[in-house]
Amino acid sequence: MSENTDQLMKQIQSIFKQAMGNDVDVTMNSEKDTVGEWDSINHLNLVVELESAFNLGLSMEEIEKLNSVQQIVDLIQLRKRETQR
């Protein structure tokens, strides 16, 4: 992982803990189906925390597609590139 991705991953891990409790532990390979705390309610908590932390406005389509940590990282990095143009 690049330094930027590593730093982003640390932020995302912190956001998961805020949204789902301190016991949740995620890696880049974590998926919704493999994280016990990642249910529909906590998915919404996660979306709210991500939108707040990264100043995002996510569409319903984007929210429904966020089923893995990798997808979250990819989306945030894409949005950062778009705002730097």
Concise structural overview:
The protein is an all-alpha fold and 85 residues long.
Descriptive overview:
This protein has 85 residues and is mainly alpha-helical. It has one domain: ACP-like (Non-ribosomal Peptide Synthetase Peptidyl Carrier Protein, Chain A, Orthogonal Bundle), CATH 1.10.1200. The protein contains four helices and no strands. It has helices spanning 3-20, 40-54, 60-65, 69-83. Helix 1 (3-20) packs across helix 2 (40-54). It is globular and about 40 Å long. 13% of the residues are buried. The mean pLDDT is 94.
The total count of helices amounts to: 4
Which percent range fits the helix content? 55-70%
Task: Output mean pLDDT.
Answer: 94
- Report the top-level CATH class: Mainly Alpha
Please state the second-level CATH architecture: Orthogonal Bundle
Low-confidence parts: none
Radius of gyration in whole Å, from Cα? Answer: 12 Å
Structural class: mainly alpha
The coarse overall form would be: globular
> What is the β-strand count?
0
Fraction of residues in β-strands: under 5%
The CATH topology assignment is: Non-ribosomal Peptide Synthetase Peptidyl Carrier Protein, Chain A
Ends: how far apart?
Answer: 23 Å
Query: Major beta sheet, specifics?
Result: none
Q: Tell me the name of the CATH homologous superfamily.
A: ACP-like
Order of helices and strands: HHHH
